[in-house]
Amino acid sequence: MMVDTKNLVPMTEANQNFSRVVRMVDEDGLAVILKNNKPRYIVVDFSEYEQVRSLQAMRAQRIKQEADRIIEENLEAFEELAK
What we know:
This protein has helices at 11-16, 18-28, 46-73, 75-82, and strands spanning 8-10, 30-35, 38-44. The chain is α+β, with helices and mostly antiparallel strands. The chain folds into 2 domains: 1-44, YefM-like fold; 45-83. It starts with 7 loop residues before the first strand and ends with a helix. The mean pLDDT is 91.
C-alpha cells in the first residue's frame, strides 16, 4: 500500500493531538499512525471502513465457496484419509 508521507503520524502525536489526525482523514481520506516508527494503525472515514468490511465479507464468501468446491471434488480422498 502506497501512503503519502504527509499522512504519517507518530503515536505520541496522535495521542496528544487527535484533532490533527481527524483533520487529515477529512482532507486526505486517511491517516497512518506509527508505532515504533512502523505503520501500525490506519484511521479512515467511516464510509471507507464500510467499503472495506464489505470487501472482506465478499472475500470470505469466495474463500468458503472455493473450500467447499475442493472438498466436494476430493471427498473420497478426504474420507479415505479420515480412516
